[in-house]
Amino acid sequence: QSVLTQPPSVSAAPGQKVTISCSGSSSNIGNNYVSWYQQFPGTAPKLLIYENNKRPSGIPDRFSGSKSGTSATLGITGLQTGDEADYYCGTWESILRAGFVRFGGGTKLTVL
Amino acid sequence: EVQLVESGGGLVQPGGSLRLSCAASGFTFSGHDMHWVRQATGKGLEWVSTIGTAGDTYYPGSVKGRFTISRDNAKNSLYLQMNSLRVGDTAVYYCARAGPVDTATMDVWGQGTTVTVSS
User: Fold this and answer.
1) Which of A107, A89, A105 is nearest to A32 (CA)?
2) Which segment of A96-105, B5-14, B20-29, B53-62 scores lowest on mean pLDDT?
């Protein structure tokens, strides 16, 4: 079971908006940046959102990120069939004096 | 072009060892923390290890004591020495570059190399 909790799946129609949640705790999301990754089958993950709400060059503004307290949200507007993929949140966690990278379990997006 | 290319994957018996390599190009390798992340077939991403620019290392409990991450800045290369391999270590292994501000941000990924642990 992942330290960060994501819904296993979400779905919406083309053109609609969808949100994917990522829930954690004060030791991870609550005190660290959140990033989001998109992964198509058989390919490496790709950075979609970093430092909670920033988009790397080339990522369309249909993708957005936000963070509040110990939760983060990825939003995708104007859904396209090409957005069908797995999405993962990630963050750093500090426990005592050790550091860990944490990923959510992943969310499969279906564009109906 | 910023690029990461992994190599060294293959088939190994349980209890065996394997050394993965990741060749970096197109950026100042010594200036970035680096990660290894793995993904078993049909499963999610699992963090394997991180090495800082100063050589500090981090591991999850699942691999601590068995895996060793290292880097050679002169060769722009990242390594993962995997010992005492288990069937559960079977996965695609990716190397990834950490972002300049947040270590946990992975802004560049390699294509992955497949490790299969089986008798």
Assistant:
1) A89
2) A96-105
Partners of residue B97 on adjacent β-strands: B34, B108
Instruction: Report angle CA B104, B58, B35 to the nearest 5 degrees.
Output: 50
**Does A5 reach chain B within 8 Å, measured CB to CB?**
no
B27-61 residue pLDDT tens: 999 999 999 999 999 999 999 999 999 999 999 99
Distance CA B82, CA B26 (A): 27
Q: Is the confidence at residue A97, as pLDDT, over 80?
A: no
CA distance A108 to chain B (A): 11
Q: What is the pLDDT of residue A44?
A: 98
Rounded CA-CA distance A100/B6 in Å is: 22
- Pull the structure tokens for residue A11: 């779905």
* DSSP percent split of chain A into helix, strand, coil, nearest 5: 5, 55, 40
Asked if B34 and B57 touch (Cβ cutoff 8 Å), the reply is no
Q: How far lies A11's CA from each of A7, A82, A83, B18, in Å?
A: 11, 13, 11, 40
3-class DSSP state of B73: helix
DSSP structural state of residue B69 = E
* Residue A48 confidence class, pLDDT cut points 50, 70, 90: very high
Q: What is the pLDDT of residue A40?
A: 97
Task: List helix spans (H) across chain A.
Answer: none
Using alpha carbons only, what angle is made at residue A80 by residues A58 and A84, rounded to the nearest 5 degrees?
Answer: 90
Task: Pick from A101, A107, A108 the residue to mutate for testing the B interface (most B CBs within 10 Å).
Answer: A101
